[in-house]
Amino acid sequence: MGMGLETRDTNPTESAKLTKDFINNWGNKFYEWGQNDHFFNIISGMRYAFAKISDKLKSQLHFWLNTGDKKVASWLYYDKKSSIPSFIFVANTDTNNKDEVEVQNPFDTPMAEKFGRGKNSLAAKKVYSSKDCNCKEGQIIIKGKKYKIRNLAAGECRIYKVINPEIIEKMQIGNL
Fold this sequence. Notes:
Helices cover about 15% and strands about 30% of the residues. The protein is α+β, with helices and mostly antiparallel strands. It has a six-stranded antiparallel sheet, with helices on one face. A two-stranded antiparallel sheet has the order 4-7. Mean pLDDT is about 75; it is low at about 1-5, about 20-25 and about 170-175.
């Protein structure tokens, strides 16, 4: 749903169970979210974040990053030609908060040979979180050091934009 793949009840008994796009022979009312506006806001935020970066991701590939935790997934998108990373995604599917998750350092991946020439560090600037709107967090990823994500809430999804470390402070907060 966060990426625009709306669903509906396959055996609708009333029109309130349908999204606007599927209303036809069953009625003429819009979909009703009911009491779960918190979930609606999370889905809307995910769709908004995805809409801002989807054109950039179309021409890129992704690579899964090992987290050592079966309930936390992480992957990065990178340019097909240069192998330069652009975004890092992290998702905690656990019902528990994670104080610290060690994520595979992008310098320890096969594409690091290309983007690592002459570089010993990258910066990851948090640009989206499903748990809050305060996207001020950023960190430097240093070659040969452990890359850690801290304070990952239960069910939280984050997007980090990979930038040059020199400009991490100059980047506008929340700008994808």
